[in-house]
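Incident log, structure service

09:12 report received: a user says their structure output differs between two submissions of the same chain.
09:20 pulled the input from the user's history:
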Amino acid sequence: MSLASARSSLCRGFQRGLVPPTVGAVQRRFLNLHEYQAQKIFGDFGVAVPKNMAVFSVQEAVDKASEFAGDEVVVKSQVLAGGRGLGYFKENNFQGGVHIVPKAQVAEVAEKMLGKTLITKQTGAEGKPNNTLLLAEKVSIDSEKYFAILMDRGSGGPLMIGSKTGGTSIEDIAAADPSAIIKQPVDIKEGMTTEIATKMATQMGYSGGQIQEAATLIANLYKVFIDCDCTMVEINPLATLTDGRVLVCDSKVGFDDNAEFRQKAIHEQRDLSQENPIEVEAKKYDLNYIKLDGDVACMVNGAGLAMSTMDLLSLLGGSPANFLDVGGAANVEAMTAAFKIISGDPNVKAIFVNIFGGIARCDHIAEAVVAGVKATGASKPLVIRLEGTNVEKGMQIIKDSGLDAFLTNDFTTGAKEAVKLAKAA
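09:34 re-ran on a clean worker, output below:
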């Protein structure tokens, strides 16, 4: 799915009265930081958070725990997935990625969590490596609310979403009572104002002196969203403590990859261990790759054509093995990397190259395809569909190359043949 399509899908959901999916749903397209990293950014922008420290070893966890007040400390796994509290660790079946722990037991708990693989409802069976723990002060929560900001195509700017109830799945809250979800657009030119922040705080159920505190926090979160080029800031829970403080107790924050050039300090914190290594490799060659569960590998230029290709394969009874948009990077180096990536997927039974030559000419793409296949020794059944600028030259290049491939100009014919070859393999 392209960035525009992902955003469009989200915004259509808002217009129907639905709530946004979690950050994990768009994690493949945007930079996500760990909670401890996001907490540091929040603190820099004046957003109130509990006292916290990141630790990277058992001994460091023990040492840092002594710096917190009280007899207990919160120990939180740091993986880029939701549902940590209900997850478990693959290696030892230790239950839960978030614990309130007596300081005397920090070493025991940290040992069971650090360097292990946490499995949650969002990670899939493979889980995510947990290489960091976040120690946080134990707070006494009086009430929990939900708050988020993201871009909304419908209103043409940032959209604040809130609920008087938080600390649990916002999707479940919305399903039980759609009226519980509060939405407040923010004019992208006017920006956040005291009036807008106060109105949102009031609608979320704050009263008395807490209105001002919550409004200030909302305004500061908006500043994070704009100044850091965020795609989403999601706070769940936004907690009111028994001592009256309003704090961000848990968060998910996504950042726009397109803003990396002006947010270098943030993007340098990217944790590649949390990402699919094949997708990381693809990005080195400006390839947009997402692994799927099917058996027909797709290699397409353009996100729209790539999505159409996956749709048509599914309609014809096939199953796409990936989303792979080579875009304008259809040169020999990129094509070689692309064939290497898809050929390395053991589930792939056939390869469908679907190219429409516009700015990128078919003859140039054909040369790159031929070079890529020969360089990688790709041996799986191959279907190539070419159409567009210099298509005749492109077709002739492939014919003269000696590649064992089914060649066509027709989209549907090519898709049918790819599905047929995959089923016959």
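09:41 both user submissions now match this output. Likely a transient worker issue. Closing.
09:42 reviewer note: The two ends are 28 Å apart (CA to CA). The longest strand covers residues 141-152.
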